[in-house]
Every structure is written in structure tokens, then in C-alpha cells.
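pls design
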């Protein structure tokens, strides 16, 4: 171990995200300030995008430490999950009991928890790391969590952190509603060479190094070149260089040692791609196409010149008939499948959040900000929901009850006598849903 050889108290280039070793470059400082401001002003959704190894998880831990005493926070890193698993992870990290898979009950427990924290004057912040792994359905569930809000502020702040694939996912037209709710988008870029030197010296200083320049100037430049300014690669390269320097009894790490370390880590520079001159490209293409032309010419001479045109034409007509037959057959199956799909329930869509009364600072319940006429009343067997833009009755029934059929529609009309136009919902309309889906009626003929 090289700690004693270089007089270090601890490992300066570790692999764990230790907030003590975070180096606040101008880009890191700007991202941290933006996220702190977004959480403090309760902007709702915030994102942090960075390449792998840029230290976004370390920055999230720093942000988590800053808000630990002023807010109730949860840190989620299990992103390969469905909507129910995400809600269970969230409730468990917030210290709430989660019994069963009832998504409606989970939302109800989370709403009550947010209500209590708001009355106590505390914010609730959720950090989701590696968010690029979330499916579109889970991202839609995360978006619906932003519906927990009061008339003047958000009750829940969500920070989505991930790789550049997250930004590409959010730019997809299907996630436009989520992208529009993101108030602050922070980003971490690679460190320039001057910042690489400051980054290495900062970590050495935190680890207790008090000697002269441990790395030569040429070694700094080579580290910046081979690591491309990515902190994780800088750590791996410096750790390997210090290990080799200790084995070689070098008190200062030179470019020679860094070169060997980069070779061990396969961090060698890429050779520039060679370009083929245009004068050479044309003959090369002609050479490749010549065998193709010879084969085509031989086929024409063997089929047309030798009077096999009729046989070839008949073969082509037969192939065309088969293609047409299977095309019509597949189209008929598609039409029948679409008709069956209309008559049955649709696939489950992301869960939505029922509207609940939000209490003011005096403890008196107030109506949801979208409710047209006062507080929404919930009974033991049903709850109410305020229609949002682009909501449909089919999607709401599938999300809450798991299906949409005649039995469900009859139950909804029983709970909502004024529901005259089920196929057309108005924004702000209040609909009452049963907590438990009605049982399907057995329509099979009885055996005699």
C-alpha cells in the first residue's frame, strides 16, 4: 500500500462517492446552486444530467446532506422496477409501512404523510439516481406524483439524475407532459486540463498530503489527456500511477509512470481515422460492383435469351399472388384484433393520483384547487377524482380498477348519476370511483 510511502492518512482516489472529496469546479458549483435553489423554492421537478463517472451521485449526496435537517428526504437507486415497486421503495425509504400491492392505498398513505410534513413546516425531497433506466410507464407514475400540491406550493420535490440517455428520453413526444414540468435542468461537463490539476491536488490535500508536487507537470497533462476530464477515470489513473510509483520507489509521479498506468487501464489515445481519397474511392466502388453486374447479365442471358421469359413471368406472378394473399389475411386478422380490443379492457396505463383535501396552516381542510364546489368528500367505499386535461374515462378506469367494461361502467353511473357523456370528460369535472373493482358477472350458460 502506498499510503505510508507518500505519507497519506487515507486513500485519496477511492471509488465510493464521499462528499468530503467532492471538488467544486465551476460546473459543479453551478449545478449544486441550481438544485439547491429549486428545492428551496419548491419547483417540483429538477434534473441532473452527466456522463458516467462525472460525480453526479456524489453531488446528490452533498445536496442530501444540505437538506437533511430541513427536509424529509428519500434516495432511490433501484430504477429497474415497475410502478408498484417504485412506490414501495419510496414509502419504505420515507419510513412508512407498506402492506400489500394496493397502489391506491399507497398514494393515500403518501398523501397523508405529505400533509403532516407540510403542517410541520418540512419539505419532502425525493432523489432518483440512474433515472435513465426507468420505463416510460414508471416515468409517468413519477410525473403523477407532482399532483400532490397545495394552492400555493408543491408538497413534493423530485430530483431525477441520470446519464445523457435521460435527456434523450425526456425529449420523446410521449413524455412531453413530464418534460414541461421540469423547472431546472442542471448538467455536469468534463473538467478542462486546468481543473484536472486542481481536482487532483484537492483530493491529495483532503487525504492529508503535505509534501511538494506529487505529480510532475507533464504527468498532469497526460492524466488530463487520457482521462478526458472524467473524475472517475482520473481517480483510477492516479490510483494505478501511485501504486506503480510506490513499487518503483518514485517519490514523484512522472509522465513515464502515468504512461504505464494508462497502458494497464487501456486508456491509450485513439489513432486518427484514415480517409480514402476520392480518386481511389471511385475505382474501388466500380471493382465491387463489377461481379454484381456480371451475375445480373448472366441471369438475363440465361432466362430471356434462352426463351425462359414465360417461366420467369409465371414464377413472378405466383410470388405476387402469395404476397397479396398473406397481406389480405394479415390485414383481416388486424381488423378483427382491433374490434376485439375495443370490446375488451385496454392495457393498464400509469396510475393516477386521486384528489384529496389539503389543509391550510390553521389545520382546516380546504378543497383541492381544481374542485369546482368545495372539499371533495371521500367515503369508505369510494373516492373522488378531479379530471385533468387529456384524461379519458377508459384510462382512469384501467389505472384504478384494472379494467373497463360494462360492469365497471354501470358501477360508475350508479356512483355518478350526472355522468351523461362518459366518452367526453370536462376538465375540472368531479368523478367518484369505487375503491374496489366490481366483480365480473358470470355470463356463461349454466349446465343443465
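designed seq:
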Amino acid at each position: 500500500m502506498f499510503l505510508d510511502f507518500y505519507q497519506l492518512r487515507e486513500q485519496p482516489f477511492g471509488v465510493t462517492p464521499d462528499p468530503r472529496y467532492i471538488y467544486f469546479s465551476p460546473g459543479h458549483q453551478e449545478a449544486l446552486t441550481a438544485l439547491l435553489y429549486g428545492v428551496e423554492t419548491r419547483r417540483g421537478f429538477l434534473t441532473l444530467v452527466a456522463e458516467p463517472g462525472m460525480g453526479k451521485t456524489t453531488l446528490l449526496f452533498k445536496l442530501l446532506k444540505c437538506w437533511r435537517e430541513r427536509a424529509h428526504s428519500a434516495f432511490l437507486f433501484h430504477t429497474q422496477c415497475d410502478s408498484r415497486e417504485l412506490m414501495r421503495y419510496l414509502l419504505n425509504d420515507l419510513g412508512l409501512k407498506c402492506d400489500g400491492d394496493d397502489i391506491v392505498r399507497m398514494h393515500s398513505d403518501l398523501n397523508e404523510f405529505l400533509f403532516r410534513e407540510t403542517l410541520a413546516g418540512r419539505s419532502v425531497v425525493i432523489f432518483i439516481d440512474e433515472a435513465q433506466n426507468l420505463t416510460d410507464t414508471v416515468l409517468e407514475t413519477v410525473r403523477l406524483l407532482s399532483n400532490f400540491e397545495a394552492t400555493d406550493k408543491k408538497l413534493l420535490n423530485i430530483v431525477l439524475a441520470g446519464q445523457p440517455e435521460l435527456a434523450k428520453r425526456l425529449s420523446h413526444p410521449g413524455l412531453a407532459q413530464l418534460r414541461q414540468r421540469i423547472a431546472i435542468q442542471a448538467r455536469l461537463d468534463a473538467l478542462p486540463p486546468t481543473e484536472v490539476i486542481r481536482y487532483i491536488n484537492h483530493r491529495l490535500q483532503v487525504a492529508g498530503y503535505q509534501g511538494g508536487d506529487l505529480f510532475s507537470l507533464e504527468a498532469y497533462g497526460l492524466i488530463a489527456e487520457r482521462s478526458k476530464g472524467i473524475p472517475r477515470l482520473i481517480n483510477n489513473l492516479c490510483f494505478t500511477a501511485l501504486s506503480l510509483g510506490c513499487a518503483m520507489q518514485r517519490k514523484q509521479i512522472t509522465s513515464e509512470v502515468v504512461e504505464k498506468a494508462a497502458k494497464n487501464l487501456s486508456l491509450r489515445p485513439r489513432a486518427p481515422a484514415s480517409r480514402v481519397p476520392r480518386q481511389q474511392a471511385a475505382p474501388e466502388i466500380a471493382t465491387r460492383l463489377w461481379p454484381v453486374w456480371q451475375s445480373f447479365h448472366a441471369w438475363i442471358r440465361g432466362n430471356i435469351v434462352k426463351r425462359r421469359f414465360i417461366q420467369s413471368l409465371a414464377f413472378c406472378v405466383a410470388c405476387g399472388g402469395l404476397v397479396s394473399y398473406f397481406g389480405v389475411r394479415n390485414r383481416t386478422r388486424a381488423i378483427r384484433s382491433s374490434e376485439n380490443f375495443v370490446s375488451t379492457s385496454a392495457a393498464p396505463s400509469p396510475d393516477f393520483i386521486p384528489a384529496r383535501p389539503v389543509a391550510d396552516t390553521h389545520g382546516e381542510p380546504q378543497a383541492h384547487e381544481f374542485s369546482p364546489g368545495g372539499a371533495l368528500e371521500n367515503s369508505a367505499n369510494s373516492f373522488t377524482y378531479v379530471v385533468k386535461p387529456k384524461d379519458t374515462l377508459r384510462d382512469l378506469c384501467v389505472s384504478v380498477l384494472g379494467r373497463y367494461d360494462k360492469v365497471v361502467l354501470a358501477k360508475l353511473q350508479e356512483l355518478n348519476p350526472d355522468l351523461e357523456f362518459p366518452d367526453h370528460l370536462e376538465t375540472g369535472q368531479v368523478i367518484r370511483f369505487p375503491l374496489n373493482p366490481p366483480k365480473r358477472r358470470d355470463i356463461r350458460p349454466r349446465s343443465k
